[in-house]
Fold this sequence. Notes:
- By secondary structure, the chain is mainly β.
- The protein has a single domain, classed as Beta-galactosidase, Chain A, domain 5 (Distorted Sandwich), CATH 2.70.98.
- Helix content is 1%, strand content 50%.
- It has one helix and 22 strands.
- The chain has a 15-stranded antiparallel beta sheet that branches.
- A hairpin with a 5-residue loop joins β2 and β3.
- The two termini are 31 Å apart.
Amino acid sequence: MDYVLKKGDAVAKVTDQGAELYSYFDAKEYLWQGDENYWEGKSPVLFPMPGGLYNDETKIEGKSYKIPKHGFVKNQKFDVVVKNESSISLCSKSNSETLKMYPYNFELYVSHSLIDNGFKTEYRVVNTNNKAMVFCLGAHPSFNCPLNKGEHFENYNLVFEKPENTQAYYIDGPLFNFDCQMNHLKNENIIPLKYSDFDNDSYVYTNLKSNYVDLVHKKTNKGARITFRGFPVLVVWSPTKKEAPFICIEPWIGLPTTIGESGNFEDKPYAIKLDAEKEFTIAFTVQTLV
């Protein structure tokens, strides 16, 4: 079922399937509306992990489990907890099927609210076990790029809040490899978008100094700002060799299986260990730049 949020002239749409906010319209549509010729997704929630596992398999507390790429909640129907004109909160809870893939009881709340010139998405993970649980988490919003007719993908830049001295990493076959690097930023904050940058799938930044990145047209500086404060990983992706008219800018906690990783879920980079009956909350925002 779809739900509509409104604030001023802005309208957002949310589905209970995966708790996705898949549309934000304010004079124009900012989010990718989907086309399976490019990608079957729109804006999935990634839990209990973003990215993929080698052979979809990991060990948790010494036992093997299979978790699909980007987790399983993207395929679940969420329950609406509360809804008003400009916000909605949805919840998914562990069940007999999730426990076959991931042996923890949990409640995952996804809340979307319209704010000035944009929206906020908040995740709240509640550990309902009598022991600690380990999880990762990610967002996968997709943005129209270009935003306007007559423009092109490569007319756009990514502009970080601060100059960065870092490199981007990318996937090496089925595994994440810290030795595979590209798009080095040497005291720079601007990355001109090129389709060829995605020939090796996504590129991944870790531990950036910046708290936000702007997706903007090179000449007008109009576009969208994605604020990802608190997320240690930022993934940038557009489908390889498809010249797709969108780009995904994804705040993550966690990484795909890395070369040299132990195979134990609790050892995954950036994984969160949440004590019994505790909760964890984090959010990202998207705001238009007009």
